[in-house]
Amino acid sequence: MFKEFLSELSRNFSELKKYKFNLIFANLGILLMLYFLVSYLFIGNKEVVFLLLIVWYFATHGLQNPTFVIEDEVIDRTIINIIQSKTGILSILIVRNLITFLVDIVKAVPVFLILFIIGDLELGNFNYIPLTFAIIVLAIYIVYALGTLVSSFALVYKRISNLISLTYYYILFFGGITADIENTTILAINKIIFPFQNARTLFEGFQNGIIEFNMIWLLLIQAFVFTILAKIIFEYNIKRSLKRGTLYGI
Fold this sequence. Notes:
Elements: H1 2-18, H2 20-41, H3 46-76, H4 79-84, H5 89-118, H6 129-151, H7 160-165, H8 167-174, H9 184-193, H10 196-207, H11 213-244
């Protein structure tokens, strides 16, 4: 498995080099959008928005990439071999998710470094930096766990990725990233499903020298629950898909 991981990681970095100009222009577009958000729309608390945009950047792949992997394997009709192998589909997804995360780090560093400089952010407003990074990683993990859970439905239904792509901008504008949500229903849904609102509360507390441990526990519980649910629902949907014949192209 480790050799396969290194091989896949090397292939992904080779693709980055091969399509570097496409990557530059794509990240330039993202940079301009994020700069507009930080510098013009949400300037009141832009350090917190900056941190949440980092999570959002990774979340876009964390939500959709697992489903893309499943859909590609179903289309190629290799999914049965993977499910019946010793490795298993969940192990393959974990490896692919980790590779996507590592590649995204390489892509994200220049984007957010430039954004930090041109966005005129105050370094003094960032407290508890090691804990801040830990919360960012935990929030990203939660999104990947959620994306893995949702991807299991691609074993049963077609084009689940089309639905997931609709969540990107919902999360950006209504997920608690760029502004506090006042609608209690949306707020409750966001707190249960996504990590952004709780992370926002933590980051705002950090600015005031406050660590809200109850929010950290909520994120840890969220990570644990999504991890367990992903495993249970994956096994359930594998059985459903085998019974319905969807994995055989029937």
